[in-house]
Specification:
Distance between the termini: 53 Å
Number of strands: 3
Strand content: 25-35%
Shape: elongated
Order of helices and strands: EEHE
Largest sheet: 3 strands, antiparallel
Strand order of the largest sheet: 2-1-3
Number of helices: 1
C-alpha cells in the first residue's frame, strides 16, 4: 500500500533561515535549498533519491512594526 503524502510544513518547522529561497521538504525535514524551485528539488533528490520532495518558496518576513 503506498504511503500517504507528507503533510505540509507546519509552524514547528522554522524556515526563517531560508527567507527568499526555495526549500525542498521531505518527511518534515529540509532536504534541499536553492535559488530556484528546480534546483531545490534536484538537491533534495540527491539527498533522498527515493522520495518526492515538497518544494515551497519561503517569503521574506515584513519588517517589524514599531
Amino acid at each position: 500500500m503506498p504511503e500517504p503524502p507528507p503533510p505540509e510544513p507546519g509552524p514547528e518547522l522554522d524556515l526563517s533561515a531560508y527567507e527568499g529561497r526555495w526549500v525542498a521538504i521531505v518527511r518534515g525535514h529540509v532536504a534541499g535549498v536553492a535559488r530556484t524551485a528546480d534546483s531545490a528539488r534536484r538537491v533534495a533528490k540527491l539527498n533522498r533519491p527515493r522520495e518526492e520532495p515538497t518544494v515551497i518558496y519561503v517569503r521574506t518576513a515584513p519588517p517589524p512594526l514599531e
